[in-house]
Amino acid sequence: MTSATAALAHDISDGAHHVRLSGVLTMDSVSDLCTRLKPLNGGGVLVLDATAVTRADSSALALMTSLMRQAHERDMRVDLKPLPQAFSAIIELYGLHNILSAREA
Question: Would 45 disulfide with which of 16, 19, 38, 50, CB 3.0-4.6 Å?
């Protein structure tokens, strides 16, 4: 896979970071996405939307948990949209239901 199989949209408006991930998020594409992410600034909210991801591996989970950790470190609220089926097996394997269940904090 190449980075062309994954897409990232990161918009900042009204104190909220809207990060939308889509396509195939694997080791081959996630590193490129990381370089394209804007820094999270303190306060506000991180809206993390991966509803359009079609395939994911542990690299995708690492990206998402890293973003969530950064947001918490900067006192940002996290709004995690429901994850698609592409994440089910990997979330089950790593036991991340509590961390990656859809919620608005």
Answer: 16
